[in-house]
Amino acid sequence: xxxxDDREGFFGGxxxxxxxxxxxxxxxxxGLRGARPEEVPGRLxxxxxxxxxxxxxxxxxxxxxLPVRISASDDAASYLxxxxxxxxxxxxxxxxxxxATVLACDLTAGHDTQRWPVFAHQATAAGVAAVYALxxxxxxxxxxxxxxxxxxxxxxxxRQLRTARRAAWLLTEALVTLPxxxxxxxxxxxxxxxxxxxxxxxxxxxxxxxxxxxADAADALDRLRGHAFVLGRTVLDVARDVVAxxxxxxxxx
Length: 253
Hints:
By secondary structure, this protein is an alpha+beta fold. It folds into 2 domains: 4-184, 2-Layer Sandwich (Beta-Lactamase), CATH 3.30.450.40; 196-243, Orthogonal Bundle (Arc Repressor Mutant, subunit A), CATH 1.10.10. It is 52% helix and 15% strand. It is built from 11 helices and 6 strands. It has helices at residues 21-32, 40-51, 75-87, 91-98, 111-115, 117-125, 158-184, 191-195, 197-213, 217-231, 235-243; strands at residues 4-6, 56-61, 68-72, 101-104, 130-138, 141-150. The protein has a 6-stranded antiparallel beta sheet, with helices on both faces. Helix 1 packs antiparallel against helix 2 and helix 9 packs across helix 10. The longest helix has 27 residues, at 158-184. The protein is globular, with a radius of gyration of 19 Å.
């Protein structure tokens, strides 16, 4: 199977002959009916699992050092998003850096295993053989990624990619436009911050490791990632232990 980076832009071209955008958009529109802004990522993930030949979907925000998962269709999709944050590589992280769609159509062999050897090994061990990552953003600004997973190798058709890009556009609207405008008037914290609350624990853990080791933020995050990888756990799991003072990095109990 071919695998590669799609650099045609965030949302692709115009519909082609036989395009099924209307039925797909009808399913997406029904899934979003009555949704509050904070519900949009989760509902879109669920709709895409119904519409496309994928078994899971997740939404991550781009952040310094690691992606921040804000929604996932199930525990497996959540784990795959956290896995990339833990090992520091993967299709989603590359899509966020390039601002382009990255298609890893076969993590079991070939080019994809060479690009992300650690992620590919861990992902296939978890039953995932393909990942399709689409950037969320406008023009050159990438604010996050929509990531789709499935258990068998294979490509998405151009029609299926158009459906995924349409969902990415709707997610971009929710993440970039809705939260700030709606909550600013009330003086409340933006809703997206609530969805990304787990990231606060990681930041707190990194700060504690910095204090324990006298290290900078990048080194502290690397130590956190390395410790999680050796233990076969996620960065978030280990961060929670650090914050709860069950784990230290300076050798003290």
